[in-house]
Write a structure and sequence with these properties.
Length: 417
């Protein structure tokens, strides 16, 4: 399935392309058609599954097709950080659409409050708000007109209830038109979420994305390292302790071939596994690996699914996999059938955000080991900074974006030129 199958507006497809989104994730495949059909929806999905785009994309498409464009969408999120992240994603997707959004959250001074309120009144299409600040806005003098609202999204609803926002949400809903589409996303579905859903959703559809979790027996570790040290570090790990069977994953075929040569030259029992090999060669390599005649296999993600070899005690991710689910598949090559194994991932500065998405998906902070002394200092782990950077990188896509006006969070964004 591709994003074209949803028959999205071409400008939205252009935005997706510029963000590097090739194909929808499972939650997107399921929720986008339902939201496009104006259904209310309860979706059980966690951070890392692509849940934000799962509701943002169909809503953006509906907004551009709609005649009446004044404040049509309210997204409520538990924290300022999430509200900012959602706003940034909307900004990326809607770059060619001219849809405006504004994040509304607490903190800042009275001035910020007044500016956010003014911006809301001046006609942003989408507001992304934390509950407390939104209540303050709605109840203060000169409040915002919500009468045109068509879409309400509650993101991370379970977390909002854990933070004690139930009453606030119910109060906010009282300000909204009854005739609207309501979409609720939650990582878990405790009874209180069901109660909330019964009160504010209308005959909702339900989606449950069961996410795979890494097996208990896998010891997950990571090194923060610069690219220049990765090969040396890999050799160090392979020589430090004897493993019967090891799988190494790298991101491209070229890298797999280069690393294979390098490690073979240093005397290791290793072979590369990639799509350029003939079927017979692949089978022979796999046979030797299964029989423990070959110690190390190095490959791309082609290796990560379906290989059922017992006794793999070490998996090394030479690069962070691009998709969090791929991480789970890759490290699932070890610790099969109740065995134990170790999975080590090398994280360069550029991949920190991807690794953070993996940690979010599996709900664990993976320990970052200190580099052996000869490899010097590790880069700091600062995935949030990398998020901003990669976002800005994406914005300069096709060189079209250099004229973009500077974003002021307190004002609705300008239409792209
Ligand atoms: P979320 O679950 O919304 O927090 O998204 C997790 C990460 O996956 C974010 O960095 C998104 O930008 C990214 N993402 C979401 N959907 C896709 C997709 N279809 N293709 C590529 N990346 C995606």
């Amino acid at each position: 399935m591709t994003f074209n199958d949803f028959k999205f507006d071409q400008r939205l497809l252009d935005g997706l392309e510029s963000m590097g989104y090739d194909k929808p994730t499972p939650i997107q495949e399921q929720s986008i058609p339902l939201i496009l059909q104006h259904k209310d929806l309860i979706a059980c999905a966690q951070t890392g599954t692509g849940k934000t785009a799962a509701y943002v994309l169909p809503i953006l498409n509906k907004i551009v097709q709609s005649e009446s464009r004044k404040l049509s969408t309210l997204i409520i999120a538990p924290t300022r950080e999430l509200a900012q992240q959602i706003d940034q994603q909307i900004e990326g997707f809607s770059y060619f659409l001219g849809v405006s959004s504004i994040p509304v959250y607490g903190g800042g001074d009275g001035n910020a409050f007044a500016q956010q309120q003014k911006a809301m009144r001046e006609g942003a299409d989408i507001i992304i708000a934390t509950p407390g600040r939104l209540i303050a806005m709605l109840t203060s003098a000169g409040s915002v007109d919500m009468s045109n609202l068509q879409h309400l999204v509650l993101d991370e609803a379970d977390r909002m209830l854990d933070m004690g926002f139930y009453e606030d949400i119910m109060r906010i809903v009282n300000y909204l038109p009854v005739n609207r589409q309501t979409v609720l996303f939650s990582a878990t579905m405790p009874p209180k979420i069901r109660t909330l859903a019964q009160r504010i959703l209308n005959n909702p559809e339900q989606i449950n994305i069961a996410i795979s979790k890494p097996a208990e027996g896998i010891l997950q570790q990571a090194y923060l390292t610069y690219d220049a040290n990765k090969v040396g570090l890999l050799k160090h790990i392979l020589n430090e302790k004897k493993h019967d069977s090891v799988i190494i994953f790298a991101s491209t075929k070229e890298k797999v071939k280069d690393l294979n040569k390098e490690l073979y030259r240093s005397g290791l029992s290793i072979k590369a596994f990639h799509s350029d090999l003939e079927q017979a060669e692949r089978e022979e390599i796999m046979r030797a690996f299964k029989n423990k005649e070959l110690q190390i296999l190095i490959g791309t993600d082609i290796l990560s699914r379906g290989i059922d070899v017992d006794g793999i005690s070490l998996v090394v991710n030479f690069d962070v996999p691009p998709d969090p689910e791929d991480y789970i598949h890759r490290i699932g090559r070890t610790a099969r059938a109740e065995n134990t194994g170790t999975a080590i991932t090398f994280i360069n500065e550029k991949d920190q955000r991807k690794f953070f998405d993996i940690e979010s998906l599996i709900g664990t902070d993976i320990p970052k080991l200190t580099l052996p002394q000869q490899f010097g200092e590790s880069p700091l782990y600062e995935p949030e900074k990398k998020l901003k950077k990669s976002f800005n990188d994406k914005r300069s896509f096709k060189g079209k974006r250099n004229n973009k006006p500077k974003i002021d969070n307190n004002r609705p964004k300008q239409k792209p030129q």
